[in-house]
Amino acid sequence: MTIAFATRLTRRAALLGAALVLAACAGPGPRAPAGTEIRVMTSGGFTAAYNELTPLYEKSTGHKVLTAYGASMGAASDSIPSRLARNEPVDIVILARPALDALVAQGQVVPGSQVDLVRSAIGFAVRSGTPKPDIGTVDALKRTLIAAPSIAYSASASGTYYETELLKKLGIEDQVKPKSRKILSERVGSVVARGDAALGLQQVSELLPIQGIEYVGPLPAEVQRVTVFSAGISTTAKQPEAAKQLIRYFTSSTAAPAIVKSGLEPVGGS
Length: 270
Prior knowledge:
This protein is α/β, with parallel strands linked by helices and 270 residues long. 40% of the residues lie in helices and 21% in strands.
């Protein structure tokens, strides 16, 4: 293959990719002009897929996506509820569906603008080079949690489930909760990678990108909690039409491969 021919193929692939992105954004309503800035707040569960998808969207549309990251819930200074309380500018919020619906009830997200993007399961990780514990059954999970010297969990959806429901379901709250640590404003995997916790629990999509850890597996089906992450339009949005186009892209079949690769399940696509 000549260099010239290879260059033509690369250009064709780029043009095709751009065409697919633009088609995925198509829908009713006026098209936002190129150069439009879209402000997004997104929680960790969707971050890995989001970080892969948005550069292609920007390149294909000429829009600029400005991103703020934070947990779906909680009082950490960088959580999405805290950012909104400070009136930080935003067009789109992406977070766990129950938290998004709470924002609708509080008048911070436009009613009816909620769009489900992905389903996200909870999993465990250990530091690279350490043995992977058995969590394949509920009984094995209980033994592993009891034996673990320390456990890190998130301050968002997965951690809320862990500290308020899971340990009670397993009947081991008194034994395990005192050695469990809630992590604020940091990925659980990073804490495990440093050796500051022997076992970490978080959304699978938030564990997989972290260097220095080994993904152990998901919670057993009997005690798994699948969280739907969804997008909504802020009531203070400056670019609501551009926001709708970006959300359509996230739900399209064009975006699905990146979503699956990140450890998430697309809710649906066009």
